[in-house]
Protein: YebG family protein
Organism: Paraglaciecola polaris LMG 21857
Amino acid sequence: MAIITRYVVEHKGVEKFVTADKKEADKYDKMLEVADNLAEYIEAKGMKFEPNVLEDLAIMLSKNKDALGKLFKGTEAKSVLSDEKADVVALGKKKA
């Protein structure tokens, strides 16, 4: 019989991520915290989105923070996209 440790990341009462790696769970949890902060910031700036669209947008921005940093420094989008695989989310649509 084996004992297995699992780390569960829960967000707004919903289980979002399960792993056996604590660092991976912490990283995912941090990404969700950043996404929450981004969503709050977007709303405070007067942008209106459906709640699920806003959440998807904030998560996509959070997951791609390194690429966004390059874009803010003036790197062309084509270059950033060719350097890494983009995390594409169909905004407003349910994920399979």
Observations:
- Residues 14 and 27 are 17 Å apart (CA to CA).
